[in-house]
Design brief:
Layout (H helix, E strand, L loop, with lengths): L18 H10 L1 H5 L6 E4 L5 H10 L9 E3 L6 E6 L6 H10 L2 H11 L14 E14 L4 E2 L4 E10 L12 E4 L6 E5 L6 E5 L6 E3 L11 E10 L4 H4 L15 H19 L2 H20 L2
Antiparallel strand pairs: 1-9, 2-3, 3-4, 4-10, 4-11, 5-6, 6-9, 6-11, 7-8, 7-10
Length: 294
C-alpha cells in the first residue's frame, strides 16, 4: 500500500494544495520542529507525491548551462553545481513557483511558528544543487541577509532527489552543536527526504566528507530559502495604509470622503491605539445619539 506524502499536492489540475490544510499539516509537526536539537529542524520522508518528485528527478538539467554556478574546489564547495529554476523547463519552473506560493509558506509558518515568511523569487544560492564524486560542502552557518532583497534569512528547505543512495557513498548532512563541539545528527540524502531547519547565526551544517560515489552517481537536491522582513523598516517608512486623494474636479462629497480617509490614516499613524479606539467609540456613541434625536 502506497505511503501518503507529507504534502498531498494535487497535480491533476496544476499544483493544488489548500492553504488551510497546509498550515494544519505544518502545525501538527511544530513541536517536533521547534524543540529539536541542536537547533529547530525536522526530517520528513516521503515528502512530495511520487509524480512530483519523479518529475523533478527526470527534468533535472543534466547538461551544464551557461548560467550555472559551479564550485570546482575548496571547503566552501568542491565539485558543486547550482542550477537556477529560471533556466529549467516548464515543469521545474512551475514546481519552484509552488515552493514560493502561499500554501507552501503556510506549511512552513505552521511548522516553525515564524510568521510573515517571504520567498526569494531570485533563488539566491538556491534552486537545484548537484555534487559529484569527491565533492563536499564544509560545515557552515548560512548567510543571514539577502543583499538583493534586504531581508533576513530564516529557514532552509532541502529536498533530496537520490534514488538508491547508499550510506557508503558518504554525503550525509551533518547537524552540529552550536558550539561546534559535537555532531548531533547525520541525515542520509535519500530519495524524497526533506530536511527543514532554522537559519540562525550558529545553525552549523554541511557534508564535509568527499563523496565516494561510482561514476555517474550524483548527489542531487532542491535547495530553498525563506526570509522575513526586518522590523527596522518601520523606523524608515511610516506604517500607514492606503492614502486617498481627491482630484481638483471631484465634487464636494468625494472630496470630503477622501479628506476623511486621509485623516483616519494620519490618526492611525500618530495617535496611540488605546486613545484611537476610545475616540472611535465616543464618536459612534455621539452619532447614535444624534440619530435617535431626529
Amino acid at each position: 500500500m502506497p505511503v501518503s506524502p507529507v504534502l498531498p499536492i494535487d497535480l491533476s489540475n496544476g499544483f493544488k494544495l489548500d492553504p488551510k490544510q497546509a498550515r494544519e499539516i505544518g502545525a501538527s509537526l511544530s513541536s517536533d520542529y521547534c524543540f529539536a536539537e541542536p537547533f529547530p529542524h525536522i526530517v520528513l520522508d516521503n515528502f512530495l507525491p511520487q509524480d512530483l518528485i519523479s518529475g523533478l528527478y527526470s527534468h533535472f538539467p543534466k547538461e551544464r548551462l551557461e548560467s550555472d554556478v559551479v564550485f570546482e574546489s575548496g571547503y566552501a564547495g568542491h565539485h558543486k553545481r547550482q542550477v537556477l529554476p529560471a533556466d529549467c523547463d516548464d515543469f521545474c519552473r512551475r514546481t519552484f513557483d509552488f515552493f514560493n506560493s502561499q500554501p507552501f509558506l503556510e506549511f512552513l509558518e505552521g511548522l516553525s511558528a515564524i510568521e510573515g515568511l517571504l520567498p526569494d523569487p531570485y533563488f539566491v544560492g538556491g534552486g537545484f544543487h548537484e555534487i559529484g564524486v569527491g565533492g563536499k560542502l564544509g560545515i557552515h552557518a548560512d548567510f543571514r541577509i539577502n543583499n538583493k532583497l534586504h531581508v533576513n534569512r530564516r529557514m532552509n528547505v532541502i529536498v533530496y532527489l537520490n534514488e538508491g543512495w547508499k550510506d557508503e557513498y558518504s554525503g550525509s548532512l551533518e547537524l552540529w552543536s552550536r558550539d561546534m563541539k559535537n555532531m548531533v545528527k547525520s541525515v542520509s540524502p535519500v530519495w524524497n527526504r526533506c530536511v527543514i531547519f532554522n537559519t540562525d547565526a550558529d545553525s552549523y551544517h554541511g557534508h564535509p566528507d568527499p563523496l565516494t560515489t561510482p561514476d555517474g552517481v550524483l548527489r542531487r537536491s532542491v535547495a530553498l530559502y525563506y526570509y522575513t522582513a526586518s522590523k527596522a523598516v518601520y523606523e524608515e517608512v511610516p506604517n500607514r495604509s492606503t492614502m486617498y486623494a481627491a482630484r481638483p474636479q471631484d465634487n464636494a462629497e468625494i472630496r470630503r470622503e477622501a479628506t476623511s480617509l486621509r485623516m483616519e490614516q494620519h490618526l492611525q499613524e500618530w495617535v496611540p491605539p488605546a486613545v484611537l479606539r476610545y475616540s472611535r467609540a465616543v464618536m459612534r456613541r455621539v452619532r447614535k445619539l444624534a440619530g435617535s434625536s431626529t
